[in-house]
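Justification of resources, computational component.

The compute hours requested in this renewal are based largely on the per-chain cost of generating structure records like the one below. Each record pairs the submitted sequence with a full structure-token output. That output is archived, and it is also reused by downstream analysis tasks.
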Amino acid sequence: MSNLRVSGVDAVGDIPWGTHFCQFCQTKEDLMDIIIPYFRAGLDNNELCVWIISQTFEVEEAKETLRSAIPDFNVYLEKGQIELIPYADWFLKKG
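The structure output for this chain reads:
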């Protein structure tokens, strides 16, 4: 299937565009083990990446974690290719 894209998540493998999947995590480290390669694959493929930050992280903490793991993270951030949005701004806007 030529429509497959790299998910960056070894357990998931390559997936068709538009695929949704859910991963349950117990710790921040578990979450980052999934998020980092997933976002890296998306950024490498010139995709828009959006992370709705849960109560588990503060936005600045998430940025610092990604900054230390993804080369040129600041470039992607400045271009608007990756967005990190607090959950309250996404889910609770206007109550």
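The mean pLDDT is 89. The longest strand covers residues 49-53.
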